[in-house]
What does this fold into?
Amino acid sequence: MTSFDVRLDCYMVEIYKGEMRDLLLSKKVVEKPKLEVRMNAEGQVVIKNVVIRNLSTIEECNDVFERGLGGRQTRKTLMNDESSRSHLIFAIIIESTNRRTGKKQSGKLSFIDLAGSESSKKTGTDKEGQQEANAIN
It folds into this structure.
């Protein structure tokens, strides 16, 4: 038996054309809340108004991650059928509580995928694609 309780939560956002988008927000939500990057009292970077999902199993983590990826901005180019057009942040928040002392600790593991910036001549991009490429850089 362990002397700690552990909780895992996650969120997933993309930065597309300079705008942060919540990839775990239900598509049914009409009015999307404004996401704000802040520092909490413990010195951790947090995103105000982001959807946070609890993770109980590795399968659940994989499912949340795949659903989030499904909402990511992609575009077909001459070099790639599904070129990511945004920067991606998938963060797992880990909270542990010592059962004997009640002391809580937390940390965060952030997985980041930066969108590539290929040459416009090689990708055969159109005007909108060029705007995306400019925003990526």
About this structure: The chain has a mean pLDDT of 84. The first helix runs from residue 58 to 70. The CA atoms of residues 55 and 62 lie 10 Å apart.
